[in-house]
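Lecture 7 notes: from sequence to structure.
We start with the chain below.
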Amino acid sequence: MQFIGINTRDEAGPAAAFEQNYGIAYPSLPDPDGEILFALRGQVAPNAVPTTLVLDAEGRPAARITGAIEPSTLRAMLDSLIAERDA
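Predicted structure tokens for the same chain:
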């Protein structure tokens, strides 16, 4: 399982401060020109920040949450996806 953030709005300094302040340990990719977001078109709306997109083992979208997500909700989504994969 791997997590990757995509920073679409903040400059490097404020983004790093946010990550440090909230203990974000996964990598975050800067996307100032919207290239990554464009590649996700149809999966993530450009104005839907934050969005959590869960991909399956083949890289296909398995779940999407727009807005803030509770850790328990994310855990349930991931557990379900893992159970499907292992079935």
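Points to note: The chain has two domains: 1-39, 45-87. The chain has three helices and four strands.
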